[in-house]
Specification:
heterodimer; A: 455 residues; Ubiquitin-like (UB roll); 5-stranded mixed sheet; 4-stranded parallel sheet; 18 helices; B: 178 residues; alpha+beta; Arc Repressor Mutant, subunit A; Glutaredoxin; 5 strands; 39% helix; elongated
Chain lengths: 455, 178
Protein backbone atom coordinates (compact mmCIF):
# COMPACT_ATOMS: atom_id res chain seq x y z
CA UNK A 1 0.00 0.00 0.00
CA UNK A 2 1.35 3.35 -0.96
CA UNK A 3 1.70 5.74 1.92
CA UNK A 4 0.78 9.26 0.99
CA UNK A 5 2.23 12.31 2.59
CA UNK A 6 0.19 14.82 4.51
CA UNK A 7 1.82 18.13 3.75
CA UNK A 8 0.97 20.91 6.14
CA UNK A 9 4.24 22.79 6.51
CA UNK A 10 5.65 21.54 3.23
CA UNK A 11 2.35 22.21 1.44
CA UNK A 12 3.88 24.65 -1.03
CA UNK A 13 7.51 23.54 -0.87
CA UNK A 14 8.66 22.60 -4.36
CA UNK A 15 5.18 23.23 -5.79
CA UNK A 16 5.49 24.45 -9.38
CA UNK A 17 5.46 28.23 -9.58
CA UNK A 18 5.65 28.75 -5.82
CA UNK A 19 8.21 31.41 -4.96
CA UNK A 20 9.51 32.78 -1.68
CA UNK A 21 8.35 36.36 -2.13
CA UNK A 22 5.51 38.12 -0.37
CA UNK A 23 3.31 38.38 -3.43
CA UNK A 24 3.21 34.62 -3.89
CA UNK A 25 2.69 34.00 -0.18
CA UNK A 26 -0.26 36.38 -0.08
CA UNK A 27 -1.76 34.71 -3.14
CA UNK A 28 -1.77 31.47 -1.17
CA UNK A 29 -3.58 32.90 1.84
CA UNK A 30 -0.48 34.26 3.52
CA UNK A 31 -0.77 36.29 6.72
CA UNK A 32 -4.50 35.54 6.99
CA UNK A 33 -3.70 33.60 10.16
CA UNK A 34 -1.88 36.61 11.54
CA UNK A 35 -5.09 38.59 11.14
CA UNK A 36 -7.05 35.79 12.78
CA UNK A 37 -4.52 35.48 15.61
CA UNK A 38 -4.50 39.21 16.32
CA UNK A 39 -8.28 39.06 16.64
CA UNK A 40 -8.15 35.99 18.89
CA UNK A 41 -5.78 37.60 21.36
CA UNK A 42 -2.63 36.25 23.03
CA UNK A 43 -4.14 33.98 25.65
CA UNK A 44 -6.49 32.33 23.14
CA UNK A 45 -3.51 31.46 20.91
CA UNK A 46 -1.64 30.04 23.89
CA UNK A 47 -4.68 27.93 24.78
CA UNK A 48 -4.91 26.53 21.27
CA UNK A 49 -1.22 25.67 21.24
CA UNK A 50 -1.65 23.89 24.56
CA UNK A 51 -4.67 22.00 23.28
CA UNK A 52 -2.76 20.99 20.16
CA UNK A 53 -0.24 19.08 22.32
CA UNK A 54 2.45 20.22 19.90
CA UNK A 55 5.89 18.94 20.88
CA UNK A 56 9.07 20.83 20.02
CA UNK A 57 10.61 19.77 16.74
CA UNK A 58 14.22 20.64 17.52
CA UNK A 59 15.14 17.36 19.13
CA UNK A 60 13.96 17.08 22.71
CA UNK A 61 10.23 16.93 21.91
CA UNK A 62 9.23 19.12 24.85
CA UNK A 63 5.57 20.27 24.75
CA UNK A 64 5.52 23.79 23.30
CA UNK A 65 2.43 24.88 25.21
CA UNK A 66 4.10 23.91 28.47
CA UNK A 67 7.29 25.73 27.51
CA UNK A 68 5.25 28.85 26.83
CA UNK A 69 3.27 28.47 30.05
CA UNK A 70 6.46 28.99 32.08
CA UNK A 71 6.15 32.63 31.08
CA UNK A 72 3.23 34.79 32.10
CA UNK A 73 3.28 38.00 30.02
CA UNK A 74 0.83 39.69 32.38
CA UNK A 75 3.18 39.30 35.34
CA UNK A 76 6.51 39.83 33.60
CA UNK A 77 8.60 42.64 35.03
CA UNK A 78 11.24 42.35 32.33
CA UNK A 79 10.86 42.25 28.55
CA UNK A 80 10.17 38.79 27.12
CA UNK A 81 12.23 37.63 24.17
CA UNK A 82 11.62 34.95 21.58
CA UNK A 83 14.38 33.34 19.58
CA UNK A 84 13.83 31.18 16.54
CA UNK A 85 16.44 28.44 16.55
CA UNK A 86 17.40 28.13 12.89
CA UNK A 87 20.84 26.75 13.67
CA UNK A 88 19.89 23.42 12.05
CA UNK A 89 23.08 21.42 12.33
CA UNK A 90 22.22 17.96 13.63
CA UNK A 91 23.79 15.58 11.10
CA UNK A 92 21.02 14.00 9.05
CA UNK A 93 18.63 16.94 9.38
CA UNK A 94 17.77 19.30 6.54
CA UNK A 95 14.12 20.24 7.01
CA UNK A 96 14.53 23.82 8.26
CA UNK A 97 16.67 24.63 5.23
CA UNK A 98 13.66 23.90 2.97
CA UNK A 99 11.39 26.23 4.95
CA UNK A 100 13.92 29.06 5.20
CA UNK A 101 14.88 28.97 1.53
CA UNK A 102 11.53 28.14 -0.03
CA UNK A 103 8.82 29.48 2.26
CA UNK A 104 10.33 32.05 4.63
CA UNK A 105 7.08 33.93 5.15
CA UNK A 106 5.45 30.86 6.64
CA UNK A 107 8.16 30.89 9.30
CA UNK A 108 7.75 34.63 9.85
CA UNK A 109 3.98 34.34 10.20
CA UNK A 110 4.35 31.54 12.75
CA UNK A 111 7.00 33.52 14.55
CA UNK A 112 4.98 36.75 14.67
CA UNK A 113 1.97 34.83 16.01
CA UNK A 114 4.14 33.19 18.67
CA UNK A 115 5.62 36.54 19.68
CA UNK A 116 2.17 38.10 19.88
CA UNK A 117 0.90 35.20 21.99
CA UNK A 118 3.69 35.70 24.50
CA UNK A 119 3.92 39.48 24.68
CA UNK A 120 7.26 39.60 22.86
CA UNK A 121 8.37 42.92 21.36
CA UNK A 122 11.87 41.97 20.27
CA UNK A 123 12.78 38.65 18.67
CA UNK A 124 15.81 37.19 16.98
CA UNK A 125 16.14 34.62 14.25
CA UNK A 126 19.39 32.78 14.93
CA UNK A 127 20.45 31.20 11.64
CA UNK A 128 23.60 29.17 11.06
CA UNK A 129 26.04 31.04 8.86
CA UNK A 130 26.58 28.04 6.57
CA UNK A 131 23.17 28.97 5.15
CA UNK A 132 25.09 31.60 3.21
CA UNK A 133 22.04 32.62 1.23
CA UNK A 134 19.41 31.84 3.87
CA UNK A 135 20.05 34.92 5.97
CA UNK A 136 19.57 37.11 2.92
CA UNK A 137 16.27 35.36 2.16
CA UNK A 138 15.10 36.02 5.70
CA UNK A 139 16.28 39.65 5.71
CA UNK A 140 14.34 40.24 2.52
CA UNK A 141 11.25 38.52 3.90
CA UNK A 142 11.44 40.70 7.02
CA UNK A 143 11.69 43.84 4.87
CA UNK A 144 8.68 42.73 2.85
CA UNK A 145 6.68 41.96 5.98
CA UNK A 146 7.52 45.36 7.44
CA UNK A 147 6.54 47.14 4.26
CA UNK A 148 3.20 45.31 4.29
CA UNK A 149 2.52 46.20 7.92
CA UNK A 150 2.83 42.65 9.26
CA UNK A 151 5.87 43.54 11.32
CA UNK A 152 7.24 46.63 13.03
CA UNK A 153 5.18 49.28 14.75
CA UNK A 154 1.43 48.87 15.23
CA UNK A 155 1.05 45.63 13.27
CA UNK A 156 -2.13 45.76 11.17
CA UNK A 157 -3.31 48.64 13.38
CA UNK A 158 -3.62 46.33 16.36
CA UNK A 159 -1.38 48.44 18.54
CA UNK A 160 1.08 45.56 18.78
CA UNK A 161 4.76 46.33 18.02
CA UNK A 162 7.36 43.71 17.13
CA UNK A 163 10.87 43.81 15.72
CA UNK A 164 12.58 40.68 14.39
CA UNK A 165 16.27 40.66 13.54
CA UNK A 166 18.34 38.00 11.83
CA UNK A 167 21.46 36.95 13.71
CA UNK A 168 24.04 34.73 12.03
CA UNK A 169 25.96 32.07 13.88
CA UNK A 170 29.52 31.18 13.02
CA UNK A 171 29.80 27.46 12.52
CA UNK A 172 29.38 26.06 16.02
CA UNK A 173 26.96 23.12 16.50
CA UNK A 174 26.62 23.92 20.20
CA UNK A 175 24.65 27.05 19.28
CA UNK A 176 21.73 24.72 18.64
CA UNK A 177 21.58 24.11 22.39
CA UNK A 178 19.24 26.83 23.61
CA UNK A 179 21.37 28.27 26.40
CA UNK A 180 24.50 28.07 24.24
CA UNK A 181 22.54 29.92 21.57
CA UNK A 182 21.60 32.60 24.07
CA UNK A 183 25.23 33.08 25.15
CA UNK A 184 26.21 33.30 21.49
CA UNK A 185 23.51 35.89 20.85
CA UNK A 186 24.89 37.90 23.76
CA UNK A 187 28.19 38.04 21.92
CA UNK A 188 30.05 35.39 23.87
CA UNK A 189 31.45 31.93 23.34
CA UNK A 190 28.54 29.52 23.13
CA UNK A 191 29.10 27.85 26.49
CA UNK A 192 25.75 26.40 27.60
CA UNK A 193 24.44 27.62 30.93
CA UNK A 194 23.72 25.36 33.85
CA UNK A 195 20.10 24.65 34.71
CA UNK A 196 19.07 25.47 37.37
CA UNK A 197 19.16 28.41 37.68
CA UNK A 198 19.51 29.51 34.05
CA UNK A 199 16.25 28.23 32.60
CA UNK A 200 15.60 30.40 29.53
CA UNK A 201 12.03 31.02 30.71
CA UNK A 202 13.43 32.79 33.76
CA UNK A 203 17.01 33.84 33.09
CA UNK A 204 17.36 33.75 29.33
CA UNK A 205 18.61 36.37 26.90
CA UNK A 206 19.98 39.34 28.86
CA UNK A 207 18.78 37.53 32.01
CA UNK A 208 15.16 38.02 30.90
CA UNK A 209 12.42 35.46 30.21
CA UNK A 210 13.10 33.92 26.81
CA UNK A 211 11.40 31.38 24.58
CA UNK A 212 13.57 29.44 22.16
CA UNK A 213 11.65 27.48 19.51
CA UNK A 214 12.71 25.52 16.46
CA UNK A 215 11.78 26.64 12.92
CA UNK A 216 9.36 23.75 12.36
CA UNK A 217 7.73 24.30 15.75
CA UNK A 218 7.02 27.96 14.95
CA UNK A 219 5.58 27.05 11.55
CA UNK A 220 3.23 24.64 13.29
CA UNK A 221 1.82 27.50 15.36
CA UNK A 222 0.44 29.07 12.20
CA UNK A 223 -1.40 25.85 11.35
CA UNK A 224 -2.68 25.47 14.89
CA UNK A 225 -4.18 28.96 14.69
CA UNK A 226 -5.70 28.00 11.34
CA UNK A 227 -7.34 24.72 12.31
CA UNK A 228 -7.63 25.07 16.07
CA UNK A 229 -5.76 23.10 18.70
CA UNK A 230 -8.27 20.26 18.96
CA UNK A 231 -8.32 19.62 15.22
CA UNK A 232 -4.54 19.75 15.08
CA UNK A 233 -4.32 17.23 17.92
CA UNK A 234 -6.34 14.78 15.81
CA UNK A 235 -3.46 14.54 13.32
CA UNK A 236 -0.95 11.91 14.31
CA UNK A 237 -1.28 9.92 17.50
CA UNK A 238 -2.08 10.78 21.10
CA UNK A 239 0.84 12.63 22.70
CA UNK A 240 2.51 12.65 19.25
CA UNK A 241 0.30 15.11 17.47
CA UNK A 242 0.59 16.97 14.22
CA UNK A 243 2.76 16.21 11.26
CA UNK A 244 6.44 15.47 11.34
CA UNK A 245 9.06 16.48 8.81
CA UNK A 246 11.32 13.52 8.16
CA UNK A 247 14.66 13.79 6.42
CA UNK A 248 16.08 10.58 5.00
CA UNK A 249 19.71 10.30 3.95
CA UNK A 250 22.36 7.66 3.40
CA UNK A 251 21.96 4.42 1.48
CA UNK A 252 18.41 4.66 0.18
CA UNK A 253 17.21 4.92 -3.42
CA UNK A 254 15.31 8.18 -2.88
CA UNK A 255 16.72 10.26 -0.05
CA UNK A 256 14.83 13.44 0.71
CA UNK A 257 12.44 15.30 2.98
CA UNK A 258 8.90 14.16 3.61
CA UNK A 259 5.98 15.11 5.81
CA UNK A 260 3.68 12.59 7.49
CA UNK A 261 1.28 12.57 10.40
CA UNK A 262 3.42 11.92 13.44
CA UNK A 263 3.56 8.15 13.91
CA UNK A 264 1.48 7.68 10.76
CA UNK A 265 4.25 5.79 9.09
CA UNK A 266 6.59 3.04 10.22
CA UNK A 267 10.32 2.97 9.76
CA UNK A 268 9.92 0.11 7.27
CA UNK A 269 7.31 1.99 5.21
CA UNK A 270 9.55 5.03 5.19
CA UNK A 271 12.67 3.20 4.03
CA UNK A 272 11.15 0.62 1.68
CA UNK A 273 8.00 2.40 0.51
CA UNK A 274 8.63 6.12 0.46
CA UNK A 275 12.38 6.04 -0.14
CA UNK A 276 12.39 3.11 -2.57
CA UNK A 277 14.44 0.75 -0.40
CA UNK A 278 18.16 0.33 0.00
CA UNK A 279 20.18 1.45 -3.02
CA UNK A 280 22.20 -0.85 -5.27
CA UNK A 281 19.97 -3.76 -4.29
CA UNK A 282 21.69 -4.11 -0.96
CA UNK A 283 20.21 -4.86 2.42
CA UNK A 284 19.67 -2.72 5.47
CA UNK A 285 22.29 -2.97 8.17
CA UNK A 286 21.64 -0.09 10.54
CA UNK A 287 19.58 3.06 10.82
CA UNK A 288 19.86 6.15 13.01
CA UNK A 289 16.28 7.41 13.36
CA UNK A 290 16.55 10.96 14.75
CA UNK A 291 19.79 12.73 13.89
CA UNK A 292 23.28 11.45 14.60
CA UNK A 293 22.87 11.82 18.37
CA UNK A 294 20.10 9.24 18.41
CA UNK A 295 21.00 5.67 19.30
CA UNK A 296 21.49 3.42 16.29
CA UNK A 297 19.01 0.63 15.50
CA UNK A 298 20.20 -2.65 13.99
CA UNK A 299 18.42 -4.46 11.15
CA UNK A 300 16.51 -7.43 12.51
CA UNK A 301 16.12 -5.98 15.98
CA UNK A 302 12.94 -6.70 17.89
CA UNK A 303 11.88 -4.30 20.60
CA UNK A 304 9.72 -4.89 23.63
CA UNK A 305 7.41 -1.91 23.72
CA UNK A 306 4.86 -1.13 26.42
CA UNK A 307 1.58 -0.04 24.91
CA UNK A 308 -1.98 0.60 25.95
CA UNK A 309 -4.41 -1.99 24.59
CA UNK A 310 -8.01 -1.30 23.63
CA UNK A 311 -9.09 -1.51 27.28
CA UNK A 312 -6.42 0.99 28.30
CA UNK A 313 -4.23 -1.60 30.08
CA UNK A 314 -0.48 -1.48 29.62
CA UNK A 315 0.70 -4.54 27.72
CA UNK A 316 4.07 -5.67 26.39
CA UNK A 317 4.23 -5.95 22.66
CA UNK A 318 7.07 -7.13 20.46
CA UNK A 319 7.78 -4.77 17.60
CA UNK A 320 10.13 -5.42 14.72
CA UNK A 321 12.42 -2.64 13.55
CA UNK A 322 10.43 -2.19 10.34
CA UNK A 323 7.20 -1.83 12.31
CA UNK A 324 8.42 0.94 14.59
CA UNK A 325 6.23 4.01 14.30
CA UNK A 326 8.06 7.22 13.49
CA UNK A 327 6.88 9.16 16.51
CA UNK A 328 8.38 10.40 19.76
CA UNK A 329 7.07 7.72 22.10
CA UNK A 330 7.62 4.67 19.85
CA UNK A 331 11.25 5.52 19.11
CA UNK A 332 11.87 6.33 22.76
CA UNK A 333 10.37 2.96 23.69
CA UNK A 334 12.82 1.33 21.28
CA UNK A 335 15.66 2.95 23.22
CA UNK A 336 16.38 5.67 20.67
CA UNK A 337 14.66 8.95 19.88
CA UNK A 338 12.72 10.81 17.22
CA UNK A 339 15.05 13.76 17.80
CA UNK A 340 15.19 16.17 14.92
CA UNK A 341 13.68 13.81 12.36
CA UNK A 342 16.93 12.98 10.57
CA UNK A 343 16.97 9.34 9.46
CA UNK A 344 20.39 8.07 8.37
CA UNK A 345 20.35 4.68 6.64
CA UNK A 346 23.40 2.38 6.33
CA UNK A 347 23.54 -0.65 4.03
CA UNK A 348 25.24 -4.00 4.63
CA UNK A 349 28.53 -2.96 3.05
CA UNK A 350 29.09 -0.28 5.65
CA UNK A 351 31.77 -0.72 8.23
CA UNK A 352 30.33 0.17 11.62
CA UNK A 353 33.73 1.17 13.01
CA UNK A 354 34.10 3.77 10.28
CA UNK A 355 30.54 5.04 10.64
CA UNK A 356 30.98 5.46 14.38
CA UNK A 357 34.44 7.00 13.98
CA UNK A 358 32.92 9.53 11.61
CA UNK A 359 30.18 10.41 14.09
CA UNK A 360 32.63 10.72 16.98
CA UNK A 361 34.88 12.99 14.93
CA UNK A 362 31.93 15.31 14.57
CA UNK A 363 31.33 15.46 18.32
CA UNK A 364 35.02 15.86 19.11
CA UNK A 365 35.10 18.84 16.77
CA UNK A 366 31.94 20.36 18.16
CA UNK A 367 32.39 19.97 21.91
CA UNK A 368 32.45 23.52 23.27
CA UNK A 369 35.15 22.58 25.76
CA UNK A 370 33.43 23.85 28.85
CA UNK A 371 32.97 20.58 30.78
CA UNK A 372 36.00 18.34 31.25
CA UNK A 373 34.27 14.94 30.80
CA UNK A 374 32.98 16.03 27.39
CA UNK A 375 35.99 18.01 26.16
CA UNK A 376 38.47 15.25 27.05
CA UNK A 377 36.21 12.23 26.77
CA UNK A 378 34.84 12.89 23.32
CA UNK A 379 38.35 13.44 22.00
CA UNK A 380 39.34 10.09 23.53
CA UNK A 381 36.41 8.42 21.79
CA UNK A 382 37.49 9.91 18.49
CA UNK A 383 41.12 8.86 18.92
CA UNK A 384 40.32 5.31 20.01
CA UNK A 385 37.93 4.85 17.09
CA UNK A 386 40.43 6.31 14.68
CA UNK A 387 43.06 3.82 15.79
CA UNK A 388 40.66 0.90 15.37
CA UNK A 389 39.71 2.19 11.90
CA UNK A 390 43.37 2.50 10.98
CA UNK A 391 44.07 -1.08 12.02
CA UNK A 392 45.75 -0.50 15.35
CA UNK A 393 42.88 -1.46 17.63
CA UNK A 394 43.44 -3.19 20.94
CA UNK A 395 41.35 -5.99 22.42
CA UNK A 396 40.43 -3.75 25.32
CA UNK A 397 39.18 -0.92 23.09
CA UNK A 398 35.45 -1.78 22.96
CA UNK A 399 35.37 -1.88 26.75
CA UNK A 400 37.39 1.31 26.98
CA UNK A 401 35.05 3.10 24.56
CA UNK A 402 32.03 2.10 26.58
CA UNK A 403 33.75 3.10 29.79
CA UNK A 404 34.65 6.56 28.52
CA UNK A 405 31.21 7.12 26.99
CA UNK A 406 29.48 6.05 30.21
CA UNK A 407 31.49 8.61 32.11
CA UNK A 408 30.51 11.50 29.84
CA UNK A 409 26.73 11.07 29.81
CA UNK A 410 25.09 12.69 32.80
CA UNK A 411 28.22 14.56 33.85
CA UNK A 412 27.98 17.64 31.67
CA UNK A 413 26.16 20.97 31.81
CA UNK A 414 24.19 20.38 28.63
CA UNK A 415 22.86 17.41 26.66
CA UNK A 416 25.80 17.43 24.27
CA UNK A 417 27.46 14.94 26.59
CA UNK A 418 24.65 12.47 26.02
CA UNK A 419 24.50 13.28 22.31
CA UNK A 420 28.16 12.31 21.99
CA UNK A 421 27.94 9.25 24.23
CA UNK A 422 24.76 7.67 22.87
CA UNK A 423 26.10 6.77 19.42
CA UNK A 424 29.16 5.12 20.97
CA UNK A 425 27.17 3.25 23.61
CA UNK A 426 24.67 1.99 21.04
CA UNK A 427 27.14 1.02 18.31
CA UNK A 428 29.30 -0.83 20.85
CA UNK A 429 26.23 -2.52 22.29
CA UNK A 430 24.79 -3.62 18.96
CA UNK A 431 27.85 -4.22 16.78
CA UNK A 432 30.35 -5.41 19.34
CA UNK A 433 31.26 -8.56 17.42
CA UNK A 434 31.95 -6.64 14.25
CA UNK A 435 34.17 -4.21 16.13
CA UNK A 436 36.04 -7.07 17.85
CA UNK A 437 36.49 -8.81 14.52
CA UNK A 438 37.86 -5.63 13.04
CA UNK A 439 40.39 -5.41 15.87
CA UNK A 440 41.43 -9.07 15.44
CA UNK A 441 42.00 -8.45 11.74
CA UNK A 442 44.18 -5.42 12.46
CA UNK A 443 46.41 -4.42 9.60
CA UNK A 444 44.55 -6.38 6.94
CA UNK A 445 41.32 -4.70 7.94
CA UNK A 446 42.82 -1.31 7.35
CA UNK A 447 43.59 -2.24 3.78
CA UNK A 448 40.07 -3.36 2.98
CA UNK A 449 38.76 -1.95 -0.22
CA UNK A 450 36.09 0.30 1.21
CA UNK A 451 35.62 4.00 0.91
CA UNK A 452 36.95 5.47 4.07
CA UNK A 453 34.41 7.44 6.03
CA UNK A 454 36.92 8.86 8.45
CA UNK A 455 38.61 12.02 7.39
CA UNK B 1 46.86 52.52 24.44
CA UNK B 2 46.56 48.87 25.31
CA UNK B 3 49.42 46.55 24.42
CA UNK B 4 48.66 44.35 21.43
CA UNK B 5 47.46 40.83 22.14
CA UNK B 6 49.89 37.98 21.61
CA UNK B 7 48.42 34.80 23.08
CA UNK B 8 46.02 33.14 20.64
CA UNK B 9 47.38 35.00 17.66
CA UNK B 10 50.31 32.67 16.88
CA UNK B 11 48.59 31.47 13.72
CA UNK B 12 47.56 34.96 12.76
CA UNK B 13 48.80 36.52 9.55
CA UNK B 14 50.17 40.05 9.47
CA UNK B 15 47.72 42.92 9.98
CA UNK B 16 44.98 43.22 7.41
CA UNK B 17 45.72 45.68 4.62
CA UNK B 18 43.19 48.06 3.18
CA UNK B 19 40.98 50.98 4.01
CA UNK B 20 37.95 50.82 6.24
CA UNK B 21 35.41 52.47 3.99
CA UNK B 22 32.72 54.81 5.23
CA UNK B 23 30.24 52.35 3.74
CA UNK B 24 31.59 49.67 6.06
CA UNK B 25 31.39 52.02 9.04
CA UNK B 26 27.78 52.73 8.15
CA UNK B 27 26.98 49.02 7.88
CA UNK B 28 28.61 48.41 11.24
CA UNK B 29 26.53 51.15 12.84
CA UNK B 30 23.35 49.67 11.39
CA UNK B 31 24.23 46.22 12.72
CA UNK B 32 24.77 47.60 16.21
CA UNK B 33 21.26 49.14 16.23
CA UNK B 34 19.80 45.63 16.00
CA UNK B 35 20.86 45.01 19.57
CA UNK B 36 19.30 47.82 21.59
CA UNK B 37 19.81 46.00 24.89
CA UNK B 38 23.49 45.14 24.61
CA UNK B 39 25.81 46.17 21.83
CA UNK B 40 28.15 43.32 22.80
CA UNK B 41 25.66 41.13 20.90
CA UNK B 42 26.94 42.76 17.72
CA UNK B 43 30.35 41.06 17.94
CA UNK B 44 29.44 38.15 15.66
CA UNK B 45 27.83 40.35 12.99
CA UNK B 46 30.83 42.69 13.03
CA UNK B 47 33.24 39.75 12.80
CA UNK B 48 31.28 38.52 9.76
CA UNK B 49 31.43 41.98 8.22
CA UNK B 50 35.17 42.25 8.82
CA UNK B 51 35.96 38.79 7.46
CA UNK B 52 33.80 39.37 4.38
CA UNK B 53 35.66 42.61 3.73
CA UNK B 54 39.25 41.70 4.54
CA UNK B 55 39.21 37.92 4.10
CA UNK B 56 40.30 37.12 7.62
CA UNK B 57 40.34 38.55 11.12
CA UNK B 58 43.71 39.83 12.23
CA UNK B 59 44.82 42.26 14.94
CA UNK B 60 43.31 45.28 13.20
CA UNK B 61 39.88 43.69 13.04
CA UNK B 62 39.96 42.67 16.67
CA UNK B 63 41.00 46.16 17.73
CA UNK B 64 38.45 47.91 15.52
CA UNK B 65 35.54 45.79 16.75
CA UNK B 66 36.60 46.00 20.41
CA UNK B 67 36.78 49.79 20.23
CA UNK B 68 33.48 50.09 18.47
CA UNK B 69 31.66 47.99 21.06
CA UNK B 70 33.63 49.21 24.11
CA UNK B 71 34.97 45.72 24.78
CA UNK B 72 38.34 44.32 25.76
CA UNK B 73 40.16 42.93 22.73
CA UNK B 74 40.20 39.47 24.30
CA UNK B 75 36.38 39.50 24.31
CA UNK B 76 36.55 39.70 20.52
CA UNK B 77 39.55 37.44 19.98
CA UNK B 78 38.10 34.63 22.10
CA UNK B 79 35.23 34.43 19.63
CA UNK B 80 37.55 34.31 16.63
CA UNK B 81 39.30 31.27 18.13
CA UNK B 82 36.04 29.62 19.26
CA UNK B 83 33.85 29.80 16.16
CA UNK B 84 35.06 27.62 13.28
CA UNK B 85 33.78 30.00 10.60
CA UNK B 86 36.30 32.70 11.53
CA UNK B 87 39.94 32.54 10.46
CA UNK B 88 43.09 34.39 11.37
CA UNK B 89 44.82 34.15 8.03
CA UNK B 90 43.66 34.69 4.46
CA UNK B 91 42.23 31.74 2.57
CA UNK B 92 42.23 31.30 -1.19
CA UNK B 93 40.25 33.45 -3.57
CA UNK B 94 38.10 30.36 -4.03
CA UNK B 95 37.52 28.64 -0.74
CA UNK B 96 35.96 25.17 -0.81
CA UNK B 97 34.28 23.55 2.18
CA UNK B 98 33.42 19.87 1.82
CA UNK B 99 30.93 18.40 4.26
CA UNK B 100 32.52 15.40 5.97
CA UNK B 101 29.71 14.30 8.29
CA UNK B 102 28.17 10.82 8.05
CA UNK B 103 25.50 11.17 5.34
CA UNK B 104 27.92 13.04 3.07
CA UNK B 105 30.68 10.56 3.90
CA UNK B 106 28.32 7.72 2.91
CA UNK B 107 27.69 9.64 -0.30
CA UNK B 108 31.38 9.83 -1.14
CA UNK B 109 32.60 13.11 0.36
CA UNK B 110 36.05 11.57 0.83
CA UNK B 111 36.41 11.02 -2.92
CA UNK B 112 35.20 14.54 -3.64
CA UNK B 113 37.70 16.00 -1.23
CA UNK B 114 40.57 13.96 -2.64
CA UNK B 115 39.62 15.02 -6.17
CA UNK B 116 39.53 18.68 -5.20
CA UNK B 117 42.84 18.42 -3.37
CA UNK B 118 44.48 16.89 -6.43
CA UNK B 119 42.96 19.41 -8.83
CA UNK B 120 44.15 22.30 -6.68
CA UNK B 121 47.52 20.71 -6.08
CA UNK B 122 47.27 21.17 -2.34
CA UNK B 123 49.36 19.57 0.35
CA UNK B 124 48.63 19.39 4.06
CA UNK B 125 50.93 22.00 5.57
CA UNK B 126 50.51 21.28 9.26
CA UNK B 127 48.38 24.36 9.79
CA UNK B 128 45.10 23.89 11.50
CA UNK B 129 42.18 24.57 9.22
CA UNK B 130 42.28 24.87 5.49
CA UNK B 131 45.00 24.01 3.01
CA UNK B 132 45.85 27.05 0.91
CA UNK B 133 47.51 26.98 -2.51
CA UNK B 134 50.79 28.87 -2.86
CA UNK B 135 49.37 31.36 -5.33
CA UNK B 136 46.47 32.11 -2.98
CA UNK B 137 43.98 31.03 -5.58
CA UNK B 138 42.46 27.99 -3.86
CA UNK B 139 41.86 26.75 -0.38
CA UNK B 140 40.13 23.64 0.84
CA UNK B 141 38.88 22.28 4.13
CA UNK B 142 36.41 19.82 5.57
CA UNK B 143 33.34 21.24 7.21
CA UNK B 144 30.88 19.66 9.60
CA UNK B 145 27.27 19.00 8.54
CA UNK B 146 26.00 21.57 6.02
CA UNK B 147 22.38 20.43 6.48
CA UNK B 148 21.59 19.02 3.08
CA UNK B 149 22.13 15.34 3.77
CA UNK B 150 19.62 14.18 1.14
CA UNK B 151 21.77 15.49 -1.70
CA UNK B 152 25.15 14.23 -0.48
CA UNK B 153 27.92 15.05 -0.91
CA UNK B 154 27.55 18.79 -0.64
CA UNK B 155 30.09 21.60 -0.68
CA UNK B 156 30.35 25.34 -0.37
CA UNK B 157 32.50 27.27 -2.84
CA UNK B 158 32.82 30.64 -1.14
CA UNK B 159 29.16 31.47 -0.54
CA UNK B 160 27.79 29.26 -3.30
CA UNK B 161 26.24 25.96 -2.29
CA UNK B 162 26.48 22.84 -4.50
CA UNK B 163 24.77 19.48 -4.14
CA UNK B 164 25.67 15.95 -5.26
CA UNK B 165 29.25 16.93 -5.98
CA UNK B 166 30.96 13.83 -7.33
CA UNK B 167 34.47 13.84 -8.77
CA UNK B 168 33.25 15.01 -12.18
CA UNK B 169 31.26 17.89 -10.78
CA UNK B 170 34.18 18.78 -8.52
CA UNK B 171 36.45 19.22 -11.52
CA UNK B 172 33.83 21.37 -13.26
CA UNK B 173 33.60 23.57 -10.18
CA UNK B 174 37.36 24.03 -10.06
CA UNK B 175 37.46 24.76 -13.79
CA UNK B 176 34.70 27.32 -13.25
CA UNK B 177 36.85 29.39 -10.89
CA UNK B 178 37.51 32.45 -12.97
Amino acid sequence: MAISEQRLIFKHIDAPGYTRDMECYLKHGGYEMLKKGLAMGPSAIRDEVKKSQLRGRGGAGFPTGTKWSFIDPSKATKPIYLICNADESEPGTFKDRQIIYKDPHQLLEGMILSCFANGVKLAYLYIRCEFTFGHKVLEKAIQEAKAAGFLGKNILKSGYDLEIYVHRGAGAYICGEETGLIESLEGKRAYPRIKPPYFPAVLGLYMSPTIVNNVETLCNVKHIVEMGGDAYAKIGRPNNTGTRLLCVSGDVVKPGYYEFPCGGITLGQLIYGVCGGIRNGRRLKAVIPGGSSAKVLRAGEVFKVKEKDAQGNMVDREVKLEDLRMDFDSLAAAGSMAGSGGVIVMDDTRDMVECLANISTFYAHESCGQCTPCREGVLWLKKILARIAEGHGRDSDPGLLKDVADRIAGRTICAFGEAAAWPVQSFIGKFKEEIQLRIRRNGTAAKRDTISLTH
Amino acid sequence: MSTPLRAGTENCASPEKGEISSEMEKQADELVTRYPVSKRSAVLPLLHLWQETFGYIGPRGVEWIAKRLSLQEIQVLELVTFYPWFRQRPYGKFHFRVCRTLPCALGGAGKTFAALQKLMNLKADGHEGAMVSEDGRFSLEYSECLASCGTAPVILRNDEFYEKVDEKKASELVAGCK
